[in-house]
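Changelog entry: the Arsenate reductase family protein record was regenerated in this release. Current contents:
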Amino acid sequence: MEIWINPACSKCRSAITVLDAEGADYTVRRYLEDVPSEDEIREVLDRLGLEPWDITRTQEAVAKELGVREWARDASSRERWVKALSAHPKLIQRPIITADDGTAVVARTEEAVRDALSREG
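Regenerated structure tokens:
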């Protein structure tokens, strides 16, 4: 299991606390430093069952600069969103946990973290 975090984020710290309390075996990826490639973002989206606009932090300053709220949310615009997430990782919603069963969750609540843990078998 891997968790994408921003250490400054309270939701990320909370998720780590739950993982540690449960004795989970996981790897931390500080995605602002170790930026996911476009392919990695596509893979995580597939695992989440979501589209890139579903995991975009539209309130971030860079999102406002780019005007992402006005971008089309359709198949023909998907790559534009993926490229923006890779170029500006601050836009990626966090934390994201990728489970060993091939799924992933946006773990913003304790329940979501526990859901990811339950997928570990």
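The mean pLDDT is 96.
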